[in-house]
Predict the structure.
Amino acid sequence: MESVACILCGSNNNHAVLSEKGRFGLNVRNVICKKCGLVYQNPRPSAEALRLEYASSTYHARYKKVELPSTERAKTEYYYCKHYVDFLRRYCDLSRGGTVLDIGCSTGGVLRRMSELGWKTLGIEPSHNYAEFAKIVHGLEVIEGMVEDIQLPKNTFDVIVATQVLEHLRDPIRSLNLLRASLKDNGSLLLSVPNILNPEGSYRDLFHDVHLFMFSPDTLRLILFIAGFDVVDYKCQDGHINMIAKKGTYINNPIMDAFLPADNWKVVRRKLWWYSQFDWLLVPLQKLKKKVLSFSLRQFTKSIITKLPGGDSFLQAIRHLVLRRG
Ligand SMILES: [Zn+2]
C-alpha cells in the first residue's frame, strides 16, 4: 500500500477520513481533500498489485459477478452501451464515420455498436479473457493492457470512449493527457464514472477496493480542464456521471475556485452523511424510479395478450402482417 497526495490540488495530509470499509467488507480507506473536495483512496494498492488484480479472473468474478466473459454478458453490455452512443450522437455526426478508441472495452459493446455505424474501431482491455473474447467472438481489434502502458498514435481518433475507467487509474491526469494527444483536434471524449453525489445502491457498497477516485460533476470537470479538455455536456444517470469533452487548451495553474462550490469538501461530506443515514429509504426509491421509467406500455399490452387464449397466435399474425408491409 502507498500513501498519496491529492492529484487535483496537490494537498498532502490535508484530508478527512470518510470511510474505512469498502464493498464486500474489505478494508478500504477513502478520504476527502479539505482543499478541493476530491474523494480518493489513501493509502491505496501499488501499481503492481492493481495490474495483477485486473489481469486476473478474481477481479471480474468479484466486480462483475462473472469470472469469464459470456455471450449473455456480451448481450447485456451491447444493450447497455446504446445510451452511451445515443449521448455521443448529440455532439458528433456519427453518420460520417470515423475512428473510435474504447479504453477498457470489455466484451466490446460500444465498439460493436460503432462498427455497425461504419466506424473503424480499436479497443484496449487489461483482462486477457475479455480481450480474447472481444477479438475471437466479435472479431474486434483489441490491445491487451493498461492504457498508461500503451503507446497510442498521435492525432488519430475522432472519438475516445472511457466508461467506468477513470476511477480505476492511478494517474488520471497523465492518462487524460495521453488520450488528448491521440484525439484529433475536433475529436470528442466520452467519459462515464460513478457519481459520488448521487450514488446507486447502499452506502456500504459505495467504496470499492479498485476505485482509486470518486468524482462529483465538479471535480470531474476540473480534472478534465487541467488535462486540457473543455466539457461540452454531462448528465447524471443510474448513479453515474456521463460527460462529453472536446480538446481545449492547457491553462497553467487554473483558478480552482472557479470550478468548485465554496467549501466543496463540506458539501460533499454532508451529502454523503445523509446518504449513509438514509440509504435504507433512498435505495428502494431509486429502484422504484427505475421501474417506473422502464415501464413500457407496449410490453405491458403484450404480456396481457399472451395470457389470453390464442394470444400468442394473434401476436404472431400481427408480426407477420407488419413484416410483410415492410
Ligand atoms: Zn485536493
User: Anything to note?
Assistant: The CA atoms of residues 299 and 305 lie 10 Å apart. The chain is about 40% helix and 20% strand. The radius of gyration is 22 Å. Residues 6, 8-9, 11, 33, 35-36, 38 surround zinc ion (CB under 6 Å).
